[in-house]
Structures are given as C-alpha cells and as structure tokens.
Design a protein that fits this description.
The structure holds two protein chains of two kinds. Chain A contains 14 helices and two strands, in the order αααααααββααααααα. Chain A has helices spanning 2-8, 12-30, 37-62, 70-88, 93-118, 122-141, 153-160, 178-196, 198-208, 210-215, 220-246, 258-268, 280-296, 307-339; strands spanning 162-167, 174-177. A two-stranded antiparallel ribbon of chain A has the order 1-2. The longest helix of chain A is centred in the C-terminal third of the chain and has 33 residues, at 307-339. The two termini of chain A are 33 Å apart. In chain B, β2 (162-163) and β3 form a beta hairpin. Chain B is globular. By secondary structure, chain B is an all-alpha fold. The chains are: A mainly alpha, B mainly alpha. The interface between A and B is large, with 63 and 52 residues.
C-alpha cells in the first residue's frame, strides 16, 4: 500500500487530479449545484469534443511533431458535411459523418504528405495547410452560418441522444450523452493502439528519437502519415459533435477557440512537447481542468476578459514545470553515466 | 555562386517578374506613384515582424508571440498617449514617453520569452505560443477588449508622415533593416546566432553562451514587434488588442520566402526585403483583381508550402542537406 502511494505521487496525473478535486470543492462551496449530476453530465458532454481533439493532438505531440491545422479540419468537415446534407435535402446522419470523416482523412493525408515526403518543419506545414483549408472553406464553400431552422433533424436529434438517464424526465432529462460514449470509444481505441500495437510503440519510439526508431526498423514515414490521418478523422468527428451540441454552424467557429484550449489541455496533462512522453489519463484530466476553469471563471469573480490570459498562463506554467522536470531528470542521468 | 547569392538572385528575378506581370496587367493603377506610397506605408508593420521571425529562425527557433507583443506594447503606448488630453504638458513629451514605454514593455516580453526558452528549457514553439496568449490576454484585460483612440496629432506623423516624399514607416523599416544587416554580418552576436542555429552543441562547446545569445535574440525580436506596434497605432490612429492577428502567417511566409532556413543557421535581411517586395506586389495584384481576403489567405498558405517544397529540392540539389533525418520533428531544434 505504501509503495502504491509512493508510486502514485511520482505521476503528474495525481497532482492534476488533486488540483481538480480541490478546485471542484471550492466551486461546490460557492455553488452547491456544481456537484449535481446535471452539471457534471453537462460538463462532460460539453467537453467531449475538445477531449477528442486533444487525443489526436496528444498523438502528434508524442512523436515530437505538432499540428495546428486540426481546428480548420474540424470546421471544414462540419460545414461541408452539413451544407451537403442541406443541399441534398437529406436527413442521413450516417452520410454526414461519412463526409466529415472523409474530409478529415483527405486533409489529414495532405498534412501527412508534406510532412513525410519533404521532411518539412511540421509547425510551418500545418500553419500553411490551416490557412489553405480555412481559406478554401470560406472562399469556395460559404461564409454564411447555419441556423437551427436549416439544420437537418437527424443532426439535432443526435445531439439529444442519451445513453442512459439518471433523473428528470420528458423534455429535460439528466442523461449521459452519446458524445461521452463516442469519446470513450475513441479513448479505448487510442489506448489499445498505444499500448498493445507495434504502431503505438513506434509512436513513442519516434518521439524518443526518430533516427533510433528508424534504425530499429520502424517505418517512421508510415507512422507519421497514419497519425496525421488519425488526427484528421478525430477532427471530422469533433466537427459533427460540435454542430450537434450547439445546433448552430458558423464557418469561423472552432478555429478561433479550440487550438489553444487543446494545446493547453495536452501540455497541462504532462505531455512533453519534444515527444516521447505523455498519457491519455493526463490529457483527459487536462481537458477537464481547462474546461471547468473556463466555464467557471466568472463564478470565481473574474470577468471573461481574463480567459485568454489564463489559458496562456496555464500553457506557460504547465510547460515550464514539465520541461524543468525533464531537465532535472536528464541532468541526473548524465551524472549517473559519468559516475559509472 | 554561394547559396546566399543564388537565393537572393532567384528572389530578385521573381520580384522583377511579378512587377512586370502586374505592370502589364494593370498598368494605369499599379504604376501610379500613390500605389507605391501606400505599399510603403503598409508593409513596414509586418515587415518588421518578418525580420523578427527571421532572427528567431536563424537561431533555429521560432517566435509565435510577436502579434501578442504588438498588442500589449501598442495598448501600453496608447494608454500613455490618451493621457495627453487631461494634461498641459506638451504632446511631444507624451509621444516620447509612449514610445519608450512600448519599447520597455517589449524588452520585458522578450526577456520572458528568452528565459523560458533557455533557463526553463521550454521549446521556443510552445513557450512563445503560451506567452502570446499571456501578452494578448493582458492587452485584452487592460482595455476590456475595446479599441483605444484619441491620440495627440503629433503621433500620427510616424505612420502617415512623409520625408522628402518617402513615407516615414518605410524610412523606419529601412533604418532598422540596415542595422540588423550589420548586426548579423559584422558583429559577434550575429555570428554567434548563426552558429547557434547551425548547431547548438557545437556553439556550446565553442565557448558561446547559448543562453545569452538566445535571450538577446528574443529581446531584439520583441523590440521589432514593439516598433511595429508604434507604426500601427499611429497609422490606424487607434489600438485594438488582437490587431494584425493575420500578420503571424504573413511574417512566417515572408521569412521562408526570403530564403530563411527554418531549421536554423541561415537567413538574410536582403532576402527578407525581397520577400516582402514580392509578396506586397502579389497582394496588391490580388486586391486589384478583386479577390476576397479568404482567397488571399488560401494563396498565402499554398505559397508557404510551395516555397518550402522548392527550397527542399534546391537544398537537395546543392547538397546542403545530404541526408534528411528520419522524422520531421525539427521543432525541438533548440536546446
């Protein structure tokens, strides 16, 4: 038991969980409604889109690369899928998801192509594709928002599906949204890939040292290509969840809000931006903390103007802690090597 | 012919070709002297940012906080300037204090970036991404998201004035560009920056203080962003946090177009200058032809990728990069 506790406190995740518990305690003291099933379930539903994006971003970070284009992929998938459905006068949720995921795959493979074929810096590639994807959407697809009246019923109904309900009834049930179910499926799949497949070991290996991974026999290009496609697919799914959540589509949504939120979550979850280190648990806790903080900023007495500042501060403090830790650990390693 | 000259020669040819194309296609409007004047007034604000990105890339890093620094320093300067109405002191004094305040804040911003990157060992990419939000967030908190206006007329001369028929922003840009060219080519700091960008390990073992070089670099970048903010607030006659959020892409595009190696170790002021010229002419052309800003962004993104792909092939043929490393993870380039 003692060893178990000792081990527990070696992990970032434990501290993050403690911070969340304390923060939730404070919020409950201010407003007892915070700890209600209704609030918790709605918080989970609202944050599942961000969480799905964060899973994809974590994989990119694990390989030591970056992708800043995923918000543009998400909004493109959402907007193109929905406008196609409206244009065809179709009410098929499956078609919407098929289009969204198809666009995710296509855009992800464009990223993957430039990154693997030309070995270009991933930040600059994805900054370029970000502007291409979003510029293409606004120029050639449309700039008008989609309101609730135009939205196909299938998408609206999808947003209201609950896997089970715990209380309430009729038009106002307290239920466990299908969004969280989708997130859980994504998490299980990603966990399986990372933990039990050669691909997953390759992802960690590339992040540790790409050259070493290549010499160990990993096909670095194929793994990177896969990751960018995976991020694209997840972004496509997130795009559909987002429009079903708020019942409104705007081609400028997601791009201006999700990038920093996702990066902050992943970084806060203890992932090392240089690759090789990071966990799904940490990332999920990071999302939970960021979303809770953002939603309750006003409740703890700060105006919404502080939001940008706080997200930035979280990123800065988060990465500083992770990297100072890594620096200290690596210095220790060097001294060990010398002393032998 | 050296890499440096070959690169700038190619850029010069592109620049000339674009100029000729524009002149042929829209002669009466493109060749007008007013068109050139307005271009000279427009580009310095993001040209300075592009020079900043170039400096960051030379050391093998990046600075994503330039727009945030521009917002914060601009808001600070604006806060000083609007006090002139309730005071009997001469307006020139307020202008001078505002400029100094903006540059002072810029130094602090650059110092913070530098410390995070060197002492805390955070990769430049993520450190400056975070500080960008911190700086922008502070600017938003100070102004509650509103624009600030009501400046003394003297300050407007910086952005809108002319000396001998040449717009003042262009003169400021020219002066700074020449100065940076000297720093890069003729001083120890410039040499050390290139060394550090080529190989941090080698520079560390050549008795170069990597920490100090990087901190100085990021202070220079922040000063460039601070100067840009002064030009912006003077030209627009107001300051709004988040103004110029599109300049980051533009600055990176220009730096890459100018032949700067994003992996570090190479970049020239002349190249960036030619890059600015080509892009400004292209942008004007797209504007004249009536394309929307969305399409322009699409073209910028496409151009960024194309130029990088062309540079990739050029470097391969000239044998500068013999064996590309497996894995494109170059963001971790800095120590």
């Amino acid at each position: 038991m003692k060893d178990f506790l000792k081990g527990l406190f070696k992990h970032n995740e434990t501290y993050l969980a403690l911070i969340i518990i304390v923060f939730a305690g404070v919020l409950t003291l201010i407003n007892p409604q915070f700890m209600s099933f209704r609030n918790i379930f709605s918080l989970l539903k609202n944050s599942s889109g961000t969480a799905i994006l964060a899973v994809g971003f974590l994989l990119v970070i694990l390989t030591g690369n970056i992708d800043v284009s995923f918000p543009a992929i998400a909004i493109s998938a959402q907007y193109i899928a929905t406008t196609t459905l409206i244009a065809l006068d179709s009410n098929s949720l499956a078609l919407a998801f098929a289009i969204a995921i198809g666009i995710g795959l296509l855009y992800g493979s464009i990223n993957g192509f430039f990154v693997t074929k030309f070995k270009l810096p991933t930040l600059i590639v994805t900054l370029g594709t970000f502007n291409m994807f979003h510029g293409f959407l606004l120029e050639f697809v449309g700039t008008r928002s989609i309101n609730i009246g135009q939205l196909p019923d299938a998408i609206k109904d999808f947003g209201d599906i609950n896997l089970f309900t715990v209380a309430g009834s009729g038009s106002n049930p307290v239920g466990f949204s299908i969004f969280v179910g989708i997130l859980i499926v994504v998490l299980l799949l990603t966990f399986f890939i990372l933990r039990f497949t050669l691909l997953g070991r390759g992802i960690y290996a590339i992040g540790g040292d790409a050259e070493a991974a290549r010499r160990a026999g990993f096909n670095v290009n194929r793994i990177q290509f896969f990751i960018y496609m995976y991020v694209g697919v997840l972004a496509g799914i997130m795009g559909m969840l987002h429009i079903a959540l708020i019942n409104y589509g705007n081609p400028n949504y997601i791009v201006d809000s999700e990038l920093l939120r996702v990066i902050a979550s992943v970084v806060l979850g203890g992932a090392l931006i240089t690759g090789g280190k990071g966990s799904l648990t940490g990332t999920m806790l990071g999302v939970l903390l960021i979303v809770t903080l953002e939603k309750n900023l006003v409740m703890i007495g700060l105006s919404s103007y502080w939001q940008e500042f706080f997200v930035g501060l979280i990123i800065v403090v988060g990465v500083t802690m992770t990297h100072v830790q890594a620096k200290l650990q690596s210095t220790q390693k060097v001294t060990i090597v010398r002393s032998h | 012919m050296t890499e440096k000259n070959a690169n700038n020669l190619m850029l010069f040819i592109i620049f000339l070709a674009l100029t000729v194309i524009m002149t042929v296609m829209i002669p009466e409007r493109f060749l007008a002297i007013n068109n050139f004047r307005s271009m000279m007034r427009q580009f310095p604000e993001y040209g300075l940012l592009a020079l900043g990105i170039m400096l960051a890339m030379i050391t093998g890093g990046i600075d994503l906080s330039i727009v945030g620094i521009t917002s914060l320093t601009g808001v600070v300067a604006a806060q000083v300037l609007i006090r002139h109405a309730e005071s009997s002191l001469p307006s020139e004094l307020f202008v001078a204090v505002a400029v100094l305040a903006a540059l002072g804040v810029a130094v602090l911003c650059g110092l913070l970036n530098g410390i995070l990157i060197t002492i805390a060992n955070v990769p430049a990419l993520i450190a400056t991404l975070g500080t960008n939000s911190v700086f922008l967030g502070l600017a938003i908190v100070f102004t509650e998201g509103h624009g600030i206006r009501g400046f003394p007329p003297e300050v407007l001369l910086i952005g809108n004035g002319q000396a001998l028929g040449v717009p003042v922003p262009f003169l400021i840009f020219l002066g700074i560009a020449l100065f940076l060219g000297l720093v890069l080519n003729r001083t120890r700091l410039g040499f050390n920056m290139v060394m550090l960008g080529s190989s941090p390990v080698v520079s560390q073992f050549s008795a170069i203080n990597n920490t100090l070089v990087l901190i100085k670099t990021h202070i220079m970048i922040a000063l460039l962003a601070g100067t840009s903010s002064i030009i912006i607030l003077s030209r627009v006659n107001s300051m709004r946090p988040g103004y110029g959020s599109g300049y980051l892409l533009l600055a990176i595009l220009i730096a890459i177009l100018g032949g700067t190696n994003p992996n570090g170790g190479f970049g020239t002021v002349l190249g960036v200058g030619l890059g600015i010229g080509s892009l400004q002419i292209l942008t004007s052309g797209l504007n004249f032809m009536g394309f929307t800003p969305f399409f322009r962004n699409f073209i910028y993104g496409l151009l960024l990728l194309l130029v990088m792909v062309i540079n990739y092939y050029r470097r391969q043929y000239s044998g500068r990069i013999l064996v590309p490393k497996a894995g494109a993870g170059t963001e971790s380039g800095q120590q």
